[in-house]
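For anyone still unconvinced, we reproduce a single protein record, the chain in one-letter code, the fold tokenised, and leave readers to judge:
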Amino acid sequence: MAVPFPVTASLDNTSPAGIGHTDLAPECRDRVRAALLNSGELWPQSSVRLSIADVSEPAGIADLAAAVSILAVSGEFRSVPLARIMFVAELGLDGSLRSVQGTWAALDAGAPLGITYAVVPHIQLPEFGASTGVTVLGAPTLSAVLAWLRGTHALPCAGTHQWDL
């Protein structure tokens, strides 16, 4: 059974949760940093440490969650219930969202854990109906996700649109 894994960011050099966490691979950190900067966001001036729980080899599936975590630990999204939102996408260097393997498994495991929303690349929305147990939203870019979190932009929801395939 798949279990969603928390991505944690901290602004110092201590491990956010200690045992059971692995620092994100350098290529993940590089993708996240480039995507944030190319989306018009600032990389925090202080040291940022990213880690992921219970995954032996962190992959692109954590990129979007890592980007949101970095901004959250920097003071963004204080009024957003981030613990109830799952972010599942790899980031392109330009800030685009890319599909990753394991999205369905992550969503299936998220609902029983209290996840109410999931954000995936918009090209994946046709895969999800209204019956996933989680409200699935699609976004083309990191900028669109951040605008949604800031309340300035809506994201399309799976099961509510006609799709031309």
About this structure: The helical segments are 26-38, 63-73, 103-110, 142-149.
